[in-house]
Design goal:
The chain has helices at residues 3-11, 15-38, 44-63, 73-92, 101-104, 107-122, 126-137, 142-148, 154-174. The protein is mostly helical and 184 residues long. The two termini are 22 Å apart.
Length: 184
C-alpha cells in the first residue's frame, strides 16, 4: 500500500479500508516503535499502548488537517509515538538511551528515508541541490566541485557547500524534522 492510499483509507468511511490502513501502519511502524520504547525503559505492553495512542493522534490530526503530508504516514506515526513516549519519560524523569542506526533499519525505512531526502532536496534551489548531490551521492571531492560549478578554488567550493548545508538545515527545521529522521 502506498502512503497516500493509506491516508485515504484511514479517512474513508469504509470500515474495511480503514482496517487495511491500520493494519498497514501496524505492520510497517509498530516494530520500530516497540524497539524504541523497549530500549528506553519500556515494555512490550507499554509499546502497544503508546502505539495505540499515537494512532489515535495521527487519526485526529488527519481529520483536522494538521498532517501536512511532508513525510510518509509511517514516519509520522513513528514520530508521534516516539514523542509521546519521550514525554511520558520526561514526566517520570527517566533518562533515554539512543538507538544505534542499525537497530531501526529495514527496507521500508530505507524507502521512507530516501523519499524524505528527495522531498527535502526538491525544496532546495537547483544549484545547491546539484552541489550536495554531487558531493554526497556522487562522491565528488572539492576540486571536482570547483571545476563542475566554475568556482575559483576548493575553498570557494567548501564555502558554497557550507552555505548549501545551512539552507538544507533551515528546510529540515522548517518541516519540524531533526537529523535522526534521515537515517540511511
Amino acid at each position: 500500500m502506498k502512503p497516500d492510499t493509506c491516508i485515504q483509507y484511514i479517512l474513508s468511511s469504509d470500515k474495511k479500508k480503514r482496517a487495511q490502513a491500520l493494519e498497514y501502519l501496524y505492520d510497517n511502524c509498530f516494530p520500530k516503535v516497540s524497539v524504541f520504547i523497549q530500549s528506553n525503559s519500556g515494555s512490550e505492553d507499554e509499546a502497544k499502548d503508546f502505539f495505540q495512542d499515537a494512532i489515535t493522534v495521527v487519526y485526529r490530526n488527519l481529520l483536522e488537517g494538521k498532517f501536512r503530508g511532508e513525510s510518509a504516514i509511517t514516519s509520522y506515526a513513528y514520530a508521534v509515538a516516539r514523542n509521546l513516549w519521550l514525554q511520558h519519560l520526561r514526566k517520570r524523569k527517566i533518562v533515554t538511551t539512543p538507538l544505534e542506526n542499525d537497530q531501526l533499519r529495514d527496507e521500508h525505512d530505507d524507502e521512507v528515508n530516501a523519499n524524505l531526502i528527495r522531498e527535502v532536496l526538491r525544496r532546495m534551489d537547483v544549484e545547491c541541490r546539484t552541489l550536495l548531490t554531487s558531493f554526497y551521492f556522487n562522491e565528488r571531492n572539492m576540486q571536482e566541485l570547483a571545476e563542475q560549478f566554475g568556482l575559483s578554488s576548493t575553498q570557494v567550493a567548501r564555502t558554497k557547500k557550507l552555505r548549501c548545508m545551512k539552507k538544507l538545515g533551515e528546510i529540515i527545521r522548517g518541516y519540524g524534522l531533526k537529523k535522526d529522521h534521515f537515517i540511511i
